[in-house]
Amino acid sequence: MVGAGRAVKERVVLITGAGQRLGAATAARLMDEGIHVLVHVRSSVDAAKQLIEDATQRNGEVRGTIVQGDLTVDAEVDALIASVKAHPLVKANGLFGLVHNASFYSQAAFEEVTLETFRSLNRLHMEAPFVLTQSLLTDVEQGGGSVVAIVDTSWGRAWEGLAHYTASKAGLRQLMLNLAGELAGRVRVNCLAPGAIMAAEWEAEHFASVLEKVPLGRSGAADDIASGVHFLLTNGTITGNVLHVDGGWTLNE
Ligand SMILES: NC(=O)c1ccc[n+]([C@@H]2O[C@H](COP(=O)([O-])OP(=O)(O)OC[C@H]3O[C@@H](n4cnc5c(N)ncnc54)[C@H](OP(=O)(O)O)[C@@H]3O)[C@@H](O)[C@H]2O)c1
CB 3.0–4.6 Å: which of 100, 110, 223, 244 could bond 129 by disulfide? Predict the structure, then answer.
């Protein structure tokens, strides 16, 4: 079945790291569009419960299921994959979408970044998306679905204290673009690159100076990311694309 052709009520999408912030906004948007969302969390169980409850109130039916696991721990990734495959809606309809959103963002001088931190980011941003995509590929094919990875606009440039983060995100981007070619005709694969959308707690003060470089002169909204993901999931012709949702930031770099 062609991706965008599956009936909305049969669509199931797994979003990693969806308990709060941009992932939660994306989950809410997809649930409101009639899609059943497997809301993956590591620790944000209560927030995810509230997210699903709020969507249930809005829509009059339950459209979310919480799935859990630390994506840097192999056994937990395996357990997550098993729980996704065992979900009755996935068994019946496959997966319409697999959204690699989970992330960890921290700034540190290069000399202070430990190998443990570097490996952890590679596991979260590259290994987990690799294993999840490989293991769930038949389910995505069954669902006439596609894969979307949330990368960022750091590609190809130097950012103070962020080499460990930008390198692993660049790896994710390349993994996805390579797969878009390799899997063409089976599943579509795309990336969405947010610009300055929602500041991390540690960069709140710095965020204002970042916005001065953004042509639109303001941050984006969480729903701009959510609608971008929905667009990539439902447009049946786009593959191998990196959709920048960044207020034109990349124009000025
Ligand atoms: N915020 C922005 O303006 C911005 C800019 C550029 C790119 N992005 C990208 O957009 C995406 C969403 O951004 P965000 O700021 O909303 O993300 P975020 O808050 O930094 O992280 C999203 C979720 O990732 C999960 N996570 C972290 N470590 C994990 C682990 N070891 N195993 C499993 N899950 C883990 C956390 O889940 P729990 O809470 O359940 O622990 C967290 O809620 C990310 O991929 C980010 O890189 C964001």
Answer: 100
